Amino acid sequence: MTDYLLILVSTILVNNFVLVQFLGLCPFMGVSNKLETSIGMAMATTFVLTLSSLCSYLTFEFILKPFELEYLKTISFILVIAVVVQFTEMMVRKTSPLLYRVLGVFLPLITTNCAVLGVALQNISKQNGFVESILYGFGAAVGFSFVLILFSAMRERINVADVPIVFQGSAIGMITAGLMALAFMGFTSLVQI
Amino acid sequence: MTTVLLAIGILLILALIFGAILGYANIRFHVEGDPIVEQIDAILPQTQCGQCGHPGCRPYAEAIANGEEINRCPPGGQATVQALADLLDVEALPLDSNSAAEPIPKVAIIREDECIGCTKCIQACPVDAILGAAKQMHTVIADECTGCDLCVEPCPVDCIDMVEISVTSKTWGWELPSGVAANASNIIATDRSTLMEMN
């Protein structure tokens, strides 16, 4: 039980995928202009990450390993992730057309989110089991959502602040993200996973 | 060689399984959208003036998708009728006879000395281009005004003018061709025959 808790703490805080491992920066910068968009994107990414982490593990364990095709893991995982994202897009379109139109092109761009492929590949390199893989994916998604929502709340306030013209827009966003990453360095070695 | 074939075979099987899952999901989560209405709405000029008889451009787009005539939009002009005719593959009718000829783009201006702050024009504006409150000064935001002149009639002191948009060096552009050249099918050769020629 403590193992699972440690995995969660590790992926959410210590080895946060956006601020410590620097994966998934594209949607992080691109979607964080408004709070409502970020919340929608966070939910979609959580769903995709958990499901694709699970499906990637199953694909590796029951299709690639029995036939000794481990070297095909990158392309198979991309295939799995693309299918899961497409599935998610259809579900979002059906259940919430407003969210679908608000997220726009960022929903299929979750496929190219390197955090999703990163989670799948790291599950293999850490030789996680079934439950650990799901928890790893879920923790990564919670960490991503947590940081995304925090960042977008900050960005909404920065937008109306008195920023010098040279820094307005993405520049001050990047600087803020860097400062957040510095802050998250405080969690280093809290948990050794 | 067998390992290569095995790898290709496994990937193919995976792709087939996932393709089947997506195909099933497509049917299960099918959305009854109507993309043609969105395409028609994108061509209409979005003045929301109501001169076509519908309360806005989107309802008119839905009516066109259900078979309404395409020539009822005066602010769009003949160019819009032609674009709709190209999109829907129907005949490009001339603009409705009871509507004006090619409209000149105008914006509304309120003469602030005479404005009494009654908010009747604010309620009439379909694109919310008038700034003001009860007993406060009303002003038209020129960038938002589409020139539909729905605000002119409700004003009880008749203080709204429709002024032509003056052309500056930033807004000048070449005129679109008129007359024979306006009919795109006369300029560019195409193998799509119109309804008239098919008969």
Instruction: Look at the structure and give the CATH class of the domain at 34-103 in chain B.
Output: Mainly Alpha
Write the H/E string of chain B, N to C: HHHHEHEEEHH
* Rounded average pLDDT of chain A: 90
Biggest sheet of chain A, open or closed, and with what strands and sense? none
> Using DSSP, what is the number of strands of chain A?
0
Q: How do the strands of the widest beta sheet of chain B line up side by side?
A: 1-4
Write up what this structure looks like:
The complex is a heterodimer of chains A (193) and B (199). With 193 residues, chain A is an all-alpha fold. Chain A has one domain. Chain A has eight helices and no strands. Chain A has helices at residues 2-14, 25-30, 35-64, 73-95, 97-103, 114-125, 130-159, 170-184. Chain A is globular and about 60 Å long. Chain B is mainly α and 199 residues long. Among the domains of chain B are: 34-103, 3-methyladenine DNA Glycosylase II, Chain A, domain 3; 104-167, Alpha-Beta Plaits (2-Layer Sandwich). Chain B is built from seven helices and four strands; from the N terminus they run H-H-H-H-E-H-E-E-E-H-H. Chain B has helices spanning 2-28, 35-43, 57-65, 77-88, 120-124, 184-187, 195-198; strands at residues 106-110, 130-131, 139-140, 160-164. In chain B, the strands form two sheets. Chain B has a two-stranded antiparallel ribbon. Chain B has a two-stranded antiparallel ribbon with strand order 2-3. In chain B, strand 2 and strand 3 form a beta hairpin. In chain B, 18% of the residues are buried. Classes of the chains: A mainly alpha (193), B mainly alpha (199). At the A-B interface, helix 3 and helix 4 of A face helix 1 of B.
